[in-house]
Design goal:
With 304 residues, this protein is mostly helical. The chain has 2 domains: 62-92, no CATH class; 100-302, MetI-like fold (Orthogonal Bundle). The protein contains 11 helices and 4 strands. It has helices spanning 43-47, 52-81, 87-97, 112-143, 145-158, 163-174, 177-202, 206-214, 219-257, 262-271, 275-302; strands at residues 8-9, 13-14, 104-106, 109-110. α4 packs parallel to α7, α4 runs antiparallel to α9 and α7 runs antiparallel to α9 (219-257). Residues 116-300 form the ABC transmembrane type-1 domain. Pfam families: BPD_transp_1. Keywords: Cell inner membrane, Cell membrane, Ion transport, Membrane, Transmembrane, Transmembrane helix, Transport. It is a multi-pass membrane protein. Residues 19-42 are annotated as: Disordered.
Length: 304
């Protein structure tokens, strides 16, 4: 019984041999440069071999666990030499706090769940308004050079302003704490979307726009067929940066405006000298911000 020798192409590498119902004899010699011999052993053993994706995931998980352990060790060391609560005391408080996160005793005494939801609602309103205004404005600024030159100095002047500086302007305009906090989120999170969208439009290949001009395409068709698909990665980058800024701004704004919200909750716990709850709030703020960013990354991967 002759062994099946795979066909080997010098340019394309080894090509699988035609299927045969006759198994190769045991101990047959391996053809140099041909198809590597099939692994020996049962199928379940071969399937459990090294998997690059599983190895990468395991490596990342181990690195993340090491980072968290280092953080807890540094935290414990700092707590042992200061009045800062340690990880064990904070964990006990967290278990007690999250046993009933949605209690409501009074307007200023509510569970951490209600405070996080109130902050997320403000972020959604301010960030949504910034997206509705900032992304179209970025397309216009990036499409027309004169408007870009006119808006550039204004954006450079206003973009570094702290959110705390915008808050009095919001109180003056709206005479209420709730819309003032939303205004601060809007004005601080709009700049990354404008800048990244305009940058994406300006990086569209000039040949595409020349072809559109030759074909006499309308401005709406140019936007829909050329500008939007080409600049979409830049737009999503601006959106991702803006949602992080919005979540940062709301904590500072709520500390000053009061009411219900994670920022006000942190300040209220400081007034009660409940430092364990402040540390818990820091982890909650970080976790929510991480979830918002990962949600946008997942959305960006699913878009064409």
């Amino acid at each position: 019984m002759a062994a099946v020798i795979p066909f080997v192409s010098a340019a394309q590498g080894p090509v699988l041999a035609p299927a045969t119902t006759e198994p190769a004899p045991a101990g047959a010699a391996t053809v140099p440069g041909g198809t590597p011999p099939a692994p020996h052993g049962p199928a379940w053993l071969r399937a459990s071999g090294p998997n690059p994706r599983a190895q990468a995931f395991a490596r990342q998980a181990i690195a993340a666990a090491v980072g968290l352990l280092v953080l807890v060790a540094l935290w414990s060391l700092l707590a042992a030499n200061t009045r800062l609560p340690g990880p064990a005391a904070t964990w006990v408080s967290a278990v007690e706090l999250f046993s009933d996160p949605f209690y409501r005793n009074s307007p200023n005494d509510q569970g951490i769940g209600w405070n996080v939801l109130a902050s997320l609602r403000r972020v959604a309103l301010g960030f949504g308004a910034a997206a509705l205004v900032g992304i179209p404005l970025g397309f216009v600024i990036g499409r027309f050079r004169f408007l870009g030159d006119a808006a550039g100095p204004v954006i450079s002047l206003l973009r570094p302003v702290s959110p705390l500086a915008w808050l009095p302007i919001g109180l003056l305009l709206f005479r209420s704490a709730e819309p003032s906090a939303i205004f601060a989120i809007f004005i601080c999170s709009i700049w990354p979307m404008i800048i990244n969208t305009a940058s994406g439009v300006q990086q569209v290949p000039r040949e595409y726009l020349d072809v559109a001009r030759v074909l006499r395409l309308s401005e709406w068709t140019v936007f829909r067929r050329i500008l939007l698909p080409s600049s979409l990665p830049h737009v999503l980058t601006g959106v991702r940066l803006s949602v992080g800024i919005a979540w940062l701004v709301i904590v500072a704004a709520e500390m000053l405006t009061g009411g219900v919200g994670i920022g006000f909750w942190v300040w209220d716990e400081w007034n009660n000298l409940n430092v364990e709850h402040i540390l818990i709030a820091i982890f909650v703020i970080g976790a929510v911000g991480l979830l918002l960013e990962q949600a946008l990354l997942l959305l960006a991967r699913r878009l064409p």
